[in-house]
Amino acid sequence: MSKIQPTAHEAVQARLCRFALCVAPSDRSFVDLIERVMGNCFVEHDGLAREAYRHVLQALGRSQGDFGVRHRCAPLSVVARFSILPYHQRVAFALVVIEEFSLADTADIMELDVHNVRALLSATRDGLFAAQVMAVNDA
Known about the structure:
Elements: H1 8-23, H2 31-39, H3 50-64, H4 78-83, H5 87-98, H6 103-110, H7 114-129
């Protein structure tokens, strides 16, 4: 039985949905956003579609800002810790680690310089593996 290969358009749409699931809060409906972006056909010849990611990121950022939640005690699992990281840290991590963009491509998508992306990734590492996450009032 042969496997049906997705088209480039479908593959990018699936990647954008995975990315949005990683960085958007769980109650955020982003399906319409992905469909609007995909309707603009930002698919590049290499399938990475940086422009599509940039548009999704800009739309998510406009409505959400930094919605990281601080807790006095860090959750036990790394996955749960990821969900409480600040928005921009989750975005940088998702683009580099999950979506496998280079630091330069991630900086381009996020409209930052590479140094700032590295700083976000370093802070993400610290947040994921810190013994405790401070409450906002303790900072």
